[in-house]
Amino acid sequence: YNSMLFLLLQTSLPKRTGNGYNTPVKRKRIYILVVIFLLGGVLLILGANIFFFPVHLKKFAARKAAEYLDRPVTIENITLNLLSGISIDGLTVYQKDNPSLPFVHVPEASFPVLLPDLLKTGKIVIPSLSVRRPVIYLTRHGPGEWNFLDLMTVQAPAGEKNGLLVGSLWVEKARIELAGQGSVPLRREIIEE
Predict the structure, then answer these.
(1) I need a labelling partner for 52 at 20 to 30 A (CA). Which of 21, 34, 59, 138 fits?
(2) Which residues pair with 75 in a beta bridge?
(3) Rounded to whole angstroms, how far apart are CA atoms 115 and 179?
């Protein structure tokens, strides 16, 4: 493998005469620098997936979502893939009136993030959001009283701009569970797509 990389780099570098790249010592230094940069990039991505994303970004994302929705939010795992973007496993938003019960559970979600827009405007631009097997638990407490009505008037916390733009949403195998509580007769329905 190392000899193939050496041959590839040797044939791709320009040949100069005099004090250029043609000397073996200078070529060897260039090869070493290229290998160091490649290994450094791989180690940076691995380190981010091992230390930063599972711990710090997961806590930050769950805290920001909880502040925005005014409901408890948990995330099991976040990983970064250079080809597919960010993947979130085990996202759960809990009910406001009973925080021990889930309101929405998403086992898997993934999305690419456009970094130039994030750096330029400060907004997170997600061209497409893929959600797999989400479950939404809707509960009717009484006439016109549902467990999601507080989300209909959600606004960004004071002093913060909405920095999230989603281009499209793709949902696979969604399930909605409807239930009635209190004075409403308990009737449970499950809708699957």
Answers:
(1) 34
(2) 91
(3) 41
Cα angle 187-188-191, degrees, rounded to a multiple of 5:
140
Token digits of residue 169: 């949403």
> In 10 A of CB 83, how many CB atoms?
5
* Residue that is written with structure tokens 């193939």 in the block: 4
pTM comes to 0.66
Residue 6 has pLDDT above 70, yes or no: no
Cβ proximity of 89 and 57 under 8 Å? no
Question: Is residue 138 classed as helix, strand or coil in its secondary structure?
Answer: strand
Distance from C-alpha of 84 to C-alpha of 57, rounded to nearest angstrom: 18
Residue 14 has pLDDT above 60, yes or no: no
In this prediction, residue 75 carries a pLDDT of: 94
